[in-house]
Amino acid sequence: MSTYEERNVEPPTTESGDVDGDAIEALLGDHVLDREEHLNADAYVVRADAVQDVLQTLKDDAGFDHLSCVTAEEHEDRFESIYHLKQYDDPTNEVSIVVPTSREEPVSESAAPVFRTADWHEREAYDLVGVQYDDHPNLERILLPDTWQGHPLGLDYNQDKPQIVTFEENKNPLEDHARGGEDSDTMFLNIGPHHPATHGVLHVETVLDGEQVADVNPDIGYLHRCEEQMAQKGTYRYQIMPYPDRWDYGPGGIINEWAYARAAEDLADIEVPEYAQVIRTMGSEMCRIACHLLATATFALDLYGDFTAIFMYGMRDREIVQNLLEDLTGQRMMFNYLRLGGVVWDIPEPRDEYFENVRDFLDDLPAKLDEYHDLITENEIFQSRCVDTGYLDPEVAKNYGVTGPVARGSGIDYDLRRDDSYGYYDELEWDVVTEDGGDNFARLLVRMREIEQSARIIEQCVDLLEDWPEDERNIQANVPRTLKPEAGKETYRAVEGAKGELGIYIRADGTEKPGRFKIRSPAFSNLSALKEMSTGEYIPDLVATLGSLDVILGEVDR
Amino acid sequence: MSSDQPRDSITGTSEPLTDTREARMGEGVDSRFNSKLREAFGSTPFILTKFDKFMNWVRGSSMFMLQFGIACCSIEMMHTYSVKHDLDRFHAGVPRASPRQADVMIVPGTIVSKFAPRMKRVYDQMPEPKFVVNMGNCSTSGGPFQEGYNVVKGAEEVIPVDIHIPGCPPRPEALVYGVAKLQERIANGESSPVTVKPYELEQFGDLDRDEMVQKLADDIDEETLVMRYNWADSP
Q1: Where in the numbering of this chain does the NADH:ubiquinone oxidoreductase-like 20kDa subunit domain appear (chain B) (predicted)?
Q2: A258 in helix, strand or coil?
Q3: B41 within some domain
Q4: Most exposed: A280, A282, A541, B110, by fewest CB within 10 Å?
Q5: B234 & B142 share domain
């Protein structure tokens, strides 16, 4: 097990603590063609053949070690790939690299050799928008079937043209290569897309050597339901907000809505009243508890095949959280509760009763968590399945853009609620949970301890809400009926979802709908690191690792 | 005091017990021991029925669901299976991980182009008679994602469906109601519909070319021997 060494490279900053744009421009030298202002950070337009140079320089000499997201988009006259870079130590230090390419020949250099996470992000960009990347290890479709014609988020894509594929294309994938060849020792095994241990419709192509995993390749896209297209078709004010509920249906609904709200509020310059921020904070922590309970329950189901005890306990406690959320929002899962500039309605009347219910839940929680610890973490069988399996090195994790409980389980102290604070989090007392183990057990412990922290946050929110003066309960800022942010405004904003950094990139085009809407899903990046965790281990440990990653396929595929 | 004389102290203390029981039972004969089934039996322990009818009743009363999670609805489906809602109370509780052991497939989520052929394969692997419950708007029509380039507009484009449950997602109560309706239909003698999709023509290779197969084969246009990923013209 290697220890986590911090690289002591800091980005150049001005006196006020912001990233010093001129110093970075000087660092990148002639590669920079132009400079743009994005709302979240400065952006540098660089040559298409210098991407690796630029990113390597920023990574090594300026400390930008987190490639958060890659957005590709098509303009009237060019294609653009935008690399959103951050720093794990301080994610408010951001910089964006814009790589334009011509429409005739949309080829730019791949960033995959510098940041491993770019591998999947660029495949997605190629799949949906049609930008091609030189020097990419495996540039093929990732979300859509291999037989797909056209790039659906491109400007000249015709959706009405039928996609027709012969029956032969859908034949059994196992028929040909069940074994690696006549004299091979390895065996090819399909796990999924319909499989009880994959948490949805994930397809994992594994190559086994005996019972050891020789190679593993997650194949995603079985739940790609065009979330980005849906958002680009909707108006900012009302029509987009229902969709985020369906990304992470853990249910991380309010957290996801907040991700969109944060980006759009930034874009339209809306100030959210404090009272609404407290309600948002409370709601999203309830969602986090529900998500982590689901993760724990299904993890135990994966390891024990135990449908009767821990799974049922998890569901029992989730029912309570879901009831609280239903009282607050009106729906069990698809809340649609946030609005730009606030929330849709106040705490339900009678308020005292609601607060009492929340407090009852919080009071019972420690005893229930003890019960989980008794059943799971202190169980010898469980420990022998989890401890030292699925090890993820922190440096590798950073390279893959891993965030959330998975990163914190590897000792990376990164939580956007604290580091890039939003809502009411910086006013409250709570701790970021980290574990140094880096294995499946550490990730589980992080989740279970985060439930305690979320409960702490909710408790403080309830106290605040209860004492809030009645005439200052402002749940909604004044927001124009039609929002039309200026054309050319661009922003990338992220919140800490239950699975990690959930970021939204929006480019406004002057209309009431976004010109480009890109979702940076935490589970997508976390899942891409599966290969690092599972290669060389036993196949049952692969299942355990999948469970501890806690992927929600709705969020991976979007 | 001899033992054939009841002692006041004992009869006195037993009173509260019978009070509770009587309060629960109410007046008259205890209706808990007088079920409809027993009424139907009358005084004899034998019943006469048609074997088919008996089999339908059995089939509806013991359904094995396929453990099949697709999207958001599968979370509500998990809640339906577990405590509080507990689908097991309605003879449909234990999800089977293998399609070979399942009678009923709940389709809980959006079907997209990449998944549609896989779902068809899973459906084909289930033994007859098999039933399909569509859970939620996505598997009924595409739901909120209907306009998407990649979304199949309802599971019925791919497999035959018995029950549609609306909702996004339907509450566990709604799913229980849908399953109960399906059981009712099965108990009333409905068996699964058999439909042959054009792209299934290849499967005729194993069949004897009797009249029925020949007719189906004649109906098929060779050029439609494809899977369509998007249904631009479908309703």
Answers
A1: 72-182
A2: helix
A3: no
A4: A541
A5: no
Q: Which domain holds residue B221?
A: 196-235
Query: Which pTM does this prediction carry?
Result: 0.84
What is the Cα gyration radius of chain B?
26
Q: Structurally, how many domains does chain A consist of?
A: 2
Half-sphere exposure of A558 (CA within 13 A, CB side): 25
Structure-token pair, residue A25? 């421009």
Prediction ipTM score: 0.86
CB contact under 8 A, B149 and A294: no
N residues, chain B: 235
Lowest mean pLDDT among A524-533, B64-73, B134-143, B150-159: B150-159
Question: CA A237, CA B79: separation in Å to the nearest integer?
Answer: 33
Helix, strand, coil tally for chain A in percent (to 5): 40, 20, 40
Pairwise CB contact (< 8 Å): A318 & B144: no
Which pLDDT value is given to residue B21? 67
DSSP annotation string for A281-297: HHHHHHHHHHHHHHHHH
Cα R_g (chain A), whole angstroms: 23
pLDDT at B33: 62
- Does any domain span residue A554? no
pLDDT digits (tens, 9 = 90+) for A68-127: 889 999 988 889 899 999 888 888 888 899 999 988 888 888 888 899 999 999 999 999
Distance CA B105, CA A540 (A): 27
Q: What is the CATH number of the domain that holds A372?
A: 1.10.645.10
At B198, the pLDDT band (50, 70, 90 cuts) reads: very low
Is the Cβ pair A164, B168 closer than 8 Å? no
Contacts of A159 in chain B (CB under 8 A): 149, 230, 232
Which of A224, A287, A298, A301 is the best residue to mutate to test the B interface, defined by the most B CB atoms within 10 Å of its own CB? Answer: A224
pLDDT digits over A270-296, tens only?
Answer: 989 999 999 999 999 999 999 999 999
- Asked if residue A259 and residue A121 are part of one domain, the reply reads no
pLDDT for residue B216: 65
Give the one of A170, A312, A333 whose C-beta lies nearest to B169's C-beta. Answer: A333
Per the structure, the complete domain to which residue A439 belongs is given by 248-480+496-504
Number of neighbouring beta carbons within 10 Å of residue A89: 19
C-alpha to C-alpha distance for A189 and A213, rounded to whole angstroms: 10
